[in-house]
Amino acid sequence: MSEMLDAWPVLPVILILGSEISLPLPKLDQEWNDTINALESENENRIREIYILYATNSRLERFAAAMQKPFPELTHLTVRGAGDLVPVLPDSFLGGSTPRLRELELMGIPFPSMPKLLLSANGLVILDLTDIPDSGYISPDAMATALTAVTKLKTLHLQFRSPRPRPDRASRPLPPPTRFVLPALTELFFRGVYEYLEDLLARIDPPLLQDLYISFFMDLNFDVPQLHWLIGHAEEFKAFDRAKVSISEDSIELLLDRQMQVLNHQGLLRLEINCKVLDWQLSSLAQVCSSSFPLISALEELEICEYLYLSPPPWKGVAENAQWLELLDPFTALKNLYLMDNAPVHVCNALLELSGERITEVLPALQNIFLYDGLSWEGPRKAIKTFVAARRRSRRPVSVHRGLGSLRWEDVTEDLASGDS
C-alpha cells in the first residue's frame, strides 16, 4: 500500500472500508489490512476523508492505534462500530488536533476526551455523536465548553444509547450567567435524559435554530424550563401553526411545523418520549407540553393518531379520560381537531366526561372535529353526539366531519343533532 501511494501523483486520498453488504472474510481482511497500512504510512498529509463502517472490536483497536498522530488535511471522519463493547478512543486520537475537520461522525464509539479534540476543530460544520455508550459519557458542562470553539457548527447530533449515567445533581456546576451563542447552528438532534439537555441548554444559545428533534427516555417527572426557553426564543418556530401527536407501541411524539412550508425549508420541532404504557405516554407528554410550553396555546390545528392496529397489546394499558383532557388543555386557540385511527374513540370518550364550565374550558376555540375511525364509526358516535349537544347549549357550537377515505370528509353535525338514526 505504501509503495502504491508513493507511485501515484500527490492527490488527495479518501479511505472507505466496510459496508452493510457482507464480503467474503479473506477479501474483507485484505481490505482492512490495506486501509490500516495506508493510515500507518507516511501519507497522512494526503488523507482527506476516512469512512470506517461497521468495524468489529478488534479491527477498531487497530484503527485507533493507527490514528494516534495528526492528520492535518483531514476534513471528514466517519467511524461506525459493529458491537456493543467497542474500545474507547484514546486522548491521543488524531494527535489531539483536527484543524481542517468539517464533519465528524461517531456511531457507537466511546470517546470521552472528544471535547478536548473539538477545541482545535475550528472549521467543524457537522458533529454527529450517535448511540453513545455509557463508557463514552461526556458531561453536559464539558460538551458545552467544547461547543464554544466550533462557532461554524450547523448540525449537532447528540444521542445516548441508554439513560445511564444521569448527570450528578450534587456535583452539577451552576450554569454561567449568560449563554454562549452558537451563531451557525440550525439543526439540533438530542436523545437522552431530560436533565442532560436542560444542563446543556442552560449554557448555549442557537439563535438560528430551524430543526429540533428531542427524544427523551421515560421519566416520572419532566421539568424542562430550558427547553421551553429554547423553543420560545427560536424565531423560526414562531411561524409554526399546526401540531400532530402520534402514539405508537413504543413512544409518543409531538410534531410541530407549518402548513405552508417556505421554499427549500422544512423546519420542524419533533419531541418524542420513549415509553410503552399508554397512560405514562399521555401524562409525560402533558407534563412537557404544559401551559408554559411556547407555541401550544397559539396553534389552531391538531391531529392525533394512535397507531395501535387491531387491539392494544396487554402491556399497553388503558389511559384515564382525565389524562387525555390534560393533554388537550394547553391548546386554547385550537380550531380544528383531527382524530385518526384509534384516537376517535378514546378522545371522544374523554370529551364525554366534561360537564359544567369544563365543557367550554377545554378547547374553548374549537370549531371543527374531523373523525377518521378506521375501525368503526359507531364507537365515537354516542360520545361525540353528547359533546356536540353540550357545546351548542353553551353557545360554543362545534361541527363534526366524518372521514370517507382519501381525506374526504362528510359533515355529520346535523345528523348527530337530529336523533339516533
Short recap of the structure:
The protein has 421 residues and is an alpha/beta fold. The chain is built from 13 helices and 18 strands.
Strand fraction: 15-25%
Low-confidence stretches: none
Widest β-sheet, arrangement of strands:
1-2-3-4-5-6-8-10-13-12-11-14-15-16-17-18
Q: How large, in whole angstroms, is the Cα Rg?
A: 26 Å
**Number of separate domains:** 2
The biggest beta sheet is recorded as: 16 strands, mixed
- General form: elongated
Count of individual helical segments: 13
| Structural class computed from helices and strand pairing | alpha/beta
Mean pLDDT across the residues is 86
Fraction of residues in helices?
25-40%
CA(first)-CA(last) distance? 82 Å
Tally of strands: 18
